Write the structure tokens for this entry.
Amino acid sequence: MVWSVETILSLAERVLWRGPPVSAGISASTRRGVPLSRPQTSLHHVGGDNKSRRVGRRPRQLCELVATLIGLVLCGAALPARAQLELPAQHLKLSIGYGRTMAFSRPQDDRSLSGDGVFSDVEYYLAVSDWFSPRAYAGLLLTFASDDDRCADRGVACDVSTQIGFLGVKGRFSVPIPYAAPFLELGAGLSLGALRTRTLRVHEAHDGVTYHVPFAVGLALGPEHDIQLALAFLFHPAQKQATGACTVGLSLVLDSGKRPAEGWRL
């Protein structure tokens, strides 16, 4: 259905204008042959007439504005129903792996202290392009302190461990090489739980919510790049510790995104 600008203006005028259309009155007088004469008014009425004209002009301007908006909506709604406006494909990625929490500080003795455990997460992402995909993630990290004779000899209760749930957002930058696509991920997120970094020189303990910085590098394997091997890291600068994990992941397609976008139809 194609609507002209005149039709849209007439429709808006009928809906919003409470009196008869100005154009209709003018055309009717012209057809009857009645000359359009200016009414005789005294000087003290001129100011009031001008004011009434300005007030009467405002609804007309409002009609034109609304009609313009209606025209824009109708133009958008009148797009061909067969237009191939594809939505991005939606995926879910599941991964699990071995994790190790380490203290990061200058003394070499502190760096060797660590805790071992398990790392797992789930990601929801949109395949915007072959080069980039935004992701939301949530997961669980459980690592426990390992015994260290150096701490026992010095009478220090060393503890480098992390028991947290975490979530956040990140972006993946990929190089779309067939069958083996390298990628890099970076983002920001929140951690909720217990973090301990007690070493010979560092004494940090936290229970509650803190921030972390996720970072990962890896390879996406297979014809569809649905099998992924990665080195994933969660950095907790406030607690002076970082967790690295060797993970294996599998991507599942939730929506292929090949359906045309649905819209209004006239």
